[in-house]
Amino acid sequence: MKEPLLQVDGLKKHFVSQKGFRKSSKQVVKAVDGVSFDIKPGETFGLVGESGCGKSTTGRMIMQMLEATEGTITFDGQRMDQLSGKELKKARKDFQMIFQDPYASLNPRMTVRDIIAEPLIVHEMETANGIDARVYELLDTVGLPRKVAERYPHEFSGGQRQRIGIARALAVRPKLIIADEPVSALDVSIQSQVLNLLKDLQDEFDLTYLFIAHDLSVVDFISDRIGVMYLGKLVEIGDRESIIQNPQHPYTRALLSAVPVPDPRAKRERIVLEGDLPSPSNPPSGCPFHTRCPFAWDRCASETPQLQTAETTGHTAACHLLDEL
Amino acid sequence: MTEPILSINQLYTSFRVDGETIPAVEGIDLSLYPGEIVGLVGESGSGKSVTSLSVMQLLDETPGEVTGGEVLFQGKDLLKFTDRQKRKVRGNDISMIFQEPMTSLNPVLKIGKQLIEAIREHQRISQTEARKHAVHMLNQVGIPRSEEIMNEYPHQLSGGMRQRVMIAMAMSCDPKVLIADEPTTALDVTIQAQILDVMRNMRKEHNTSILFITHDLGVIAEMCDRVAVMYSGRIVEQGTVYEIFENPKHPYTKGLLGSIPKLGAKEDRLDSIQGQVPTVEDRPKGCKFANRCPFVMDHCWEEEPPLFDGENRCWLHEREEA
């Protein structure tokens, strides 16, 4: 059994907003509220959920771009919160991020060469002479012609920009890549190119991915294991196949049944959820999903269900009716 | 055979930028029959939204201009209408809903006021009656506490609720044609499922014809009777939803279908289309898909294929016929 590369334990992020005269009233938004999972080396873990479920906030805390309110992140055996500034800088080299918006995440005043070279310079990984060679190598890897090195981001399409972002993330030879909705801004024909590329790169460089997305079909395609988030909590977690074929949590079932399938003859039982996502500043009591759950009963409103292993499938879900539905 | 309620014939639309004319839509033919949902699918820049704006004649504020063709609504050419006639048709006979409901609703007016205004623009009824009708429409699209929502502002509603309000407004005058431009793209899947249900019910109850514009092939498969696939300002293939999904003929349609990951399919790789959509200046001289097509032949670079059998623009199918 391999040691996990990343361990996330009881992670919470509560944003406090102060309102009113003299900021007298406090409002706490529990964006992430107790999330735990781990990722083994070489694995792709897909974190899926609808807007506002806390999946991006989770990714940002792991990236050390946001400080966690509670909980720990252990990367490669090191507790991230115990590292000094210097040590953290060194550790950052091993985890890199790919962002959703390929337009906002590249500096418009830098050439492609400078964008890709920047992490190499920051982490002092290459000599001045070695940088050019490495930049060309990276452009080859992500399938861009070498001549683009002197160009600026605005000259590229969304898909090409995303390739530049991937080259930048790969530059320092990271172990873990956190990809936050990397293909959701792309057209389908380009999306498939980038997904294939991400798979190839994983094989070539032994990468571990945390893949954050709202699109279940995409997460199903790329992941080995999947975690489903709802209102700041993980409601179900397990192997990809088990989650997709045998979802246990009613929210996962509803989510899966709502995905439009590109087959006009597909006949499916659609579970249409009533109502909207509750506000994370005022989450429902007990199970966060009970306000929209078709199976909710008394206990769901009063007691928060914990993640437990379902006997039928062997993967875990947080539902009072586990193994009974 | 019934007459189409809306037919677009040889529509050309171009944009004038810095003295240059950039063609966005080049010769589109598309018909919409009563009670039918037709999907217009394509990637960004394919001209699908420009097509809908041309039909609604909402290009006045843009550098765009319809340069040729006709748009027949019940046999009359909308493009020849006076401004007064256009106002009468828009919202009354043909309505439109957009991708981003926040930008299509007025942020400083209450929901009720906006709905009533839209209703009274086209119907000679009293304020009270219009209000009653507005509440009825909100109920129809599944908005809870509709009376209260009438007195709220758009920013107080969630994205899904706003889109419902837009649909209620669009349907309030019982239009014959609804043009929906990416109506669910900005929404989460569980909310998308609700909105698609609302639209299906509208069609069932009012026999509304819907032109459904989207890039999402899954949504197309669920909603549409017929599909037209656009690429580089042209329709490259059209047919029934079964023909398109089960027996696609054009290499672009095939590529598009291969590109989408299918839930539970356990695929290792996706069949992607190489390269990217060419910019208007870089469009090949012949078939616009030639530079990305896996089956490209010499002839494709030279001459643009016509629409064979009125359903697909690919030279491969000329050979089959011969």
UniProtKB/TrEMBL annotation, chain A:
<comment type="similarity">
    <text>Belongs to the ABC transporter superfamily.</text>
</comment>
<keyword id="KW-0067">ATP-binding</keyword>
<keyword id="KW-0813">Transport</keyword>
<dbReference type="GO" id="GO:0005524">
    <property type="term" value="F:ATP binding"/>
</dbReference>
<dbReference type="Pfam" id="PF00005">
    <property type="entry name" value="ABC_tran"/>
</dbReference>
<feature type="domain" description="ABC transporter">
    <location>
        <begin position="6"/>
        <end position="256"/>
    </location>
</feature>
<dbReference type="InterPro" id="IPR027417">
    <property type="entry name" value="P-loop_NTPase"/>
</dbReference>
<keyword id="KW-0547">Nucleotide-binding</keyword>
<dbReference type="InterPro" id="IPR017871">
    <property type="entry name" value="ABC_transporter-like_CS"/>
</dbReference>
<dbReference type="InterPro" id="IPR013563">
    <property type="entry name" value="Oligopep_ABC_C"/>
</dbReference>
<dbReference type="InterPro" id="IPR050319">
    <property type="entry name" value="ABC_transp_ATP-bind"/>
</dbReference>
<dbReference type="Pfam" id="PF08352">
    <property type="entry name" value="oligo_HPY"/>
</dbReference>
<dbReference type="InterPro" id="IPR003439">
    <property type="entry name" value="ABC_transporter-like_ATP-bd"/>
</dbReference>
<dbReference type="InterPro" id="IPR003593">
    <property type="entry name" value="AAA+_ATPase"/>
</dbReference>
<protein>
    <submittedName>
        <fullName>Peptide ABC transporter ATP-binding protein</fullName>
    </submittedName>
</protein>
From TrEMBL, chain B:
<dbReference type="InterPro" id="IPR017871">
    <property type="entry name" value="ABC_transporter-like_CS"/>
</dbReference>
<dbReference type="InterPro" id="IPR027417">
    <property type="entry name" value="P-loop_NTPase"/>
</dbReference>
<keyword id="KW-1003">Cell membrane</keyword>
<dbReference type="InterPro" id="IPR003439">
    <property type="entry name" value="ABC_transporter-like_ATP-bd"/>
</dbReference>
<comment type="similarity">
    <text>Belongs to the ABC transporter superfamily.</text>
</comment>
<feature type="domain" description="ABC transporter">
    <location>
        <begin position="6"/>
        <end position="257"/>
    </location>
</feature>
<dbReference type="InterPro" id="IPR013563">
    <property type="entry name" value="Oligopep_ABC_C"/>
</dbReference>
<keyword id="KW-0472">Membrane</keyword>
<keyword id="KW-0547">Nucleotide-binding</keyword>
<dbReference type="Pfam" id="PF00005">
    <property type="entry name" value="ABC_tran"/>
</dbReference>
<dbReference type="GO" id="GO:0005524">
    <property type="term" value="F:ATP binding"/>
</dbReference>
<dbReference type="InterPro" id="IPR050388">
    <property type="entry name" value="ABC_Ni/Peptide_Import"/>
</dbReference>
<keyword id="KW-0813">Transport</keyword>
<protein>
    <submittedName>
        <fullName>ABC transporter ATP-binding protein</fullName>
    </submittedName>
</protein>
<dbReference type="Pfam" id="PF08352">
    <property type="entry name" value="oligo_HPY"/>
</dbReference>
<dbReference type="InterPro" id="IPR003593">
    <property type="entry name" value="AAA+_ATPase"/>
</dbReference>
<keyword id="KW-0067">ATP-binding</keyword>
